[in-house]
Design brief:
alpha+beta
Length: about 190
């Protein structure tokens, strides 16, 4: 009987070891987390609760953020039909005006809206009792609650959606960090 137990234990150990990478893959590394932390620190140092910038990749697009200290970071990116108007608002530090315009009057289908619960970057599933992060792209929304079945999507599609959203969000945040730092050095 002892000989029978060893092969069974060996197979069980292999199965457990094979499952470990899958468990780690489920909680992906966030590219946006360090950039979100940097933005929050920069906003707090500058005593700002919102910031906005032109998107360097597209002159008709803008990015704006509303920071609710200790709670969340709401970031929107979109095309705007009258870019000079938003450029002027940014020039005069009317960042909240840019945020509101992007939320309410952006070019249809161009808006990306990130609700970063905890203001700590996107997470593929929430930590503890923290709310899930949500990303809206155009008319599609994904809640990163760690439960792709609830959203009726495959694990692979959920992982891809997270990776794409996290990369895009990290770029948005980087643009805003540069804007806050440029504001501090320009003061």
């Amino acid at each position: 009987m002892a000989r029978f137990d060893r092969p069974v234990l060996g197979v069980a150990a292999l199965v457990i070891c094979a499952a470990i990478p899958v468990a780690f893959a489920a909680e992906q590394e966030s590219k946006s987390a360090p950039v979100a932390k940097e933005l929050v620190q920069a906003l707090e140092a500058a005593k700002l609760e919102n910031i906005a910038a032109a998107d360097p990749a597209d002159p008709a697009s803008f990015i704006a953020a509303l920071y609710i200290p200790g709670t969340q970071l709401l970031v929107v990116s979109a095309k705007y039909s009258a870019p000079p108007l938003l450029a002027e608002r940014i020039k005069t530090n009317d960042y909240m005006g840019v945020y509101v315009d992007l939320q309410s009057a952006s070019v249809r289908g161009s808006k990306v809206f990130v609700q970063d619960a905890g203001a700590d970057g996107l997470r593929s599933k929430p930590d503890g009792d923290q709310a899930a992060d949500t990303v809206e792209v155009g008319d599609k929304s994904v809640v990163f609650d760690g439960e792709p079945k609830k959203a009726k999507i495959s694990e692979a599609d959920y992982t891809k959606a997270f990776t794409d959203a996290d990369e895009r969000y990290a770029k948005m945040l980087s643009t805003l960090v540069a804007q806050v730092k440029g504001k501090k050095s320009g003061s």
